[in-house]
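Fig. S4 source data, part A: sequence.
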Amino acid sequence: MGMFNLFRKKIKIEIDNEDEKTECNNLFFLEGLVAKPWHFYQLTRDKHLTIDFLEKYIDESWDFDELSSNKIITLDFLEKYIDKPWNYFKLSSNEIITPDFLEKYIDKPWNYWNLINNENLNKDFIECHRKILMYNFTKNQFPDY
C-alpha cells in the first residue's frame, strides 16, 4: 500500500471521527501538500485521478506507461503532451485513438497488432498504413539496425 493510500485512510478516519459520513474520494486534499515527497508514480494508479489534477502537476514523475491505457486520457491531453514518455504499445489499444490522430502521429512507434485489434480504428486504414507503422515500430524496437 503506497503512501497515498495510507494518507487516504488516515483522512477517512479523521473525517469519520468528526461524525461526517462523506468519504474522501478526491485528490483535493493533496493541493496544499504537493511539496511533500509524494510518489506521483503511484498516484497514477489511483481511481480518483482526474485529468485536471494530472495536468496541474504534469511535470511530476507520473507513470506514463500506466497512463497510456488509462480511461481519463483524452486526445487533447495526449496531443498537448505528445512528447511525454507514452507507451505506444498500450496507446495502440486505447479506444481514444482515432484514424485522424494516428495519421497525424504516424511516425510514433505504434504497435501494428494492437491497432488492428482496436475497435475504434478502421481496418482498411490500418492496412493502408501498414508499411510505415511496421517500419516505425521496428525502428523503435531495434534502433541499432
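Fig. S4 source data, part B ends here. Confidence is low (pLDDT under 50) at residues 1-26.
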